[in-house]
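On clarity, I found the account of how folds are encoded harder to follow than it need be. What matters is that the chain and its backbone geometry are given together, residue for residue. For the editor and my fellow referees, an illustration may be useful. For illustration, here is how one protein appears when written out as sequence plus structure tokens:

___
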Amino acid sequence: MPATADPRDYQHMTEQRHHPQLQAEQARDRRTDIWAWVAVVIITLGFFIVDIVSEMTDGTYAGEPGRWQQFVLFDGSSIVVLFALFPVLLWLTRRWPLSLQDWKRIIPIYALASLIWSAIHIAGMVAIRKVLYPLIFEGLYSFNRAGGFWLEMLYEYRKDLLTFTLYLAVIYAFRHMADLRREVQTARTEARRSSRITLKSGGSTIFLDAQRVDWARAAGNYVEISAGGTVHLARISLTALDEQLQAAGTDIVRTHRSWLVNRARLREVRPTGEGDQIAILQSGEEVPVSRRYRDALAAS
């Protein structure tokens, strides 16, 4: 330990490293990345199988029924190296995460990384081909075709850039979904602990006393929530809101596929004469009650 270092700094670093919540978050991140890897494998192998079948068919029509075997070697060697390099992309996106605030700085880093990643990919697949080609076919494998080395590199990089972008998109898609699930779980835990619900509205976060909620109505990708005479618009699903309110101890009931009502605000329920009903709230507001949810409301 350097003479100028404060021992408390090392103690703080050790506590962070062994903090149970931090370890749980890191474990969740690893699981997310593993699922992203699985998705990439499935997508890539799916394209590979389709291309093999196409090569077999095209080769038969062209009078070259064995052509698909070279295709398997060439594309198979590429795929093996791509899978081996996937952890590099996981590290890259953790080390330099892309965000709306930093994209101008991060995009050039990703562009440079794509060049290095492609060069390693090309070198790896060419090495595999040079070893296996003479064992399976006659002659030696040559990377240089009629266009020359640099034209071949450009041709391969064009394909690698698409693959690089696709893999990054898969990684970020899985992490985004994991973040959304985490937000839902955190909001539910907070609702259970404090009896408040957490809502996202634009760039703001709204905290509402769950017991003050009168009703909620789905509005496209948003939900309108009436609480204490004020209507809030939040980006949340009606199901997720229902779960938060239930966790907060609110006696909430779904009266329609697009409506939730606080039972404590109900004054009466009237038939419409067409098989459906209307719930009248203490405020005088009317909420539809469909046949599907009529029994749930009657259970109150």
Residues 7-184 form one domain. The chain has seven helices and ten strands. The beta strands are 196-201, 204-209, 213-219, 222-227, 230-234, 252-256, 259-262, 266-271, 277-281, 286-289. The longest helix spans residues 149-194.
